[in-house]
Amino acid sequence: MTRVKQDRVLGVLVRERDWVTAAALADVVGVTPRSIRSYITAINARAAGAIESSPFGYRASQEAATALRTRSQTGTPRDRLHTIVRALLSGPAGIDVFETADALFVSAATLEADLGRVRGLLGGTELALERSASRARLVGTEVAQRRLLSRLAHDEMDEGAFDLAALRRTLGDGSVGPRAFGPFKSDFVARLTGLGYFVNEFGIADVIMHIAIAADRVAAGRPLGDAGVVTTPAQQSIAEIIDELARRHLEIRLGAGDLVHLATLVLTRIVAPGTSESRAPLDPDVELAVREIVAEAASEFLVDIVATEFIQRLALHVQNLRLRAREQAWSRNPLTRSLKSTYPMIFEVAVYIASRLHERLEIPLLDDEIAYIAMHVGGQLERSRRADHLLTATIVCPGYYELHELLRSSVDRSLGQAIEVVEVETRVDPDWTAIDTDLVLTTIDPAIPGERFVRIQPFLTPADVERVQVVAGRIRRGRRLARLRAELERYFDASAFIRGFDGAGGEDAVIRRLGGTLVERGVIDADYLDRAIERERLSSTAFTDALAVPHAIGMTASRTAIAIGISEHPISWGDGRVQVVALAAFSESDREAFQTVFEQFVEVFSERESVQRIVRRGTDFSAFLDELVAVIDG
Predict the structure, then answer these.
(1) Considering 484, 515, 548, which residue would you say is the last residue of a domain?
(2) Is residue 425 within 8 Å of 435, Cβ to Cβ?
(3) Among 17, 182, 385, 411, which one is most buried in terms of CB atoms within 10 A?
């Protein structure tokens, strides 16, 4: 467990890329600052210079990411577990408990405990661990055994990112898997592209992992059966490519059963353009379900995502997703954590869509798969973003030949995605008070002060562009947080504030305790709390390392209100730990406020120093609100 926590500390520092105090790390990991210091020492002992230290705390060096992927092959519980699973999967005879314990230099009791952990991995895998005297063996189909290997490889991958070392730890140093990452992948992607497919890079890395597992199992004499194999033209063409490349690059011949199985996995992880003859026809039921669910999500969250091309792309993704669900071949997404913390509103729309897909099409969805839906949603919102999201600007440039025209052209070219120039003032003495745009880009000193005035050169320089972007970003953030402050002051109430609760009863107990304060005031009913717990099970609402925002799907509160709970010490929430829980209940009339409160509230709590200030000083409701407003106001 200590080694796991060391890796978690290392992972947090790699992700933050800035100084983090021992106390802040202790909050995230759930240990004392003293333990953090010992972890840092141990990390640097195994990877010299991985973690830098200073009076500001600790920071990951350039070597830290490599250290995170470089783990010893024996000695830790996870390494030992993988060794045992590989031994169990190597043949039908299984393992002898006492011989295996001796080989791993552990006691028989320790190995028995490890076998208990193996049983814990088998839930839902169609595998069983059987014991006969001192022998233990896995019973189940070859497909189920490969799924277990895939699951172990994914467990090795921090943040869902695929890497060669993780595969080698799962399959063993003697596997053929590593060779699939060079010429094989390049040739495979080129051949798929030649057939008219768009290759999802995240998905194809997962496919390569499955090909590596298949090659390893076939080399060990454990192929898939090919009885009754029937292929479609698309499966056949991809199977032929895999067969050719496996013989050329991996020096192994895969049977018909393996080739069709792998071709099916490929087809669930790549997307063919609409004009491609190789594209599988879109299931009308899937397309109708996606069209209706997208319309519901657009209405529920007031987002502009109803577009024919978007619906077709998402429907094709969902069709592939349904096939992956049938195969239990889930696809990992290395962007899941960052999408959830950086774009909580987009992720929430994706959770809503995933929930409705589960109801309509009975597709179970994991966080990584929800993140892929969020990527589709985010891409569409980026395409449909309206011009009124831009800041307006006036250029003040006293007329001298075409100088002002050249300057406007430069501004449009360099800053057109951030601001919209609506006026150009060429007078040397403009009426500064009459200029009402968000920004004023001026080549002369303004007669009145103000943050929105930005001094630039007549010939725009890179420094000018950077200065305008900084001011524009500051204005946007200030406006967002000003709206947030106004909304929060309406929705908070002293009677719905709890300081000092613990998480002993898990997320459900915390949700019910906080929700009870809103039930008593008639804001929500008990059914809302049941639905909030159901939403939490779909995907954790711990959007940052400090904040969880549990809520139900559907804005059914009699009025919008937020119950706040602060824990003195971090409590477990999903896969992370939090200190602030904000149970949000929104009413039908406050749909627009949902976006403001949800996204900007999470933004405030993504800043570690702000969180600690609020938690430390928010000893009662009045102090909490004062500190929150102070942080928002900067």
Answers:
(1) 484
(2) yes
(3) 411
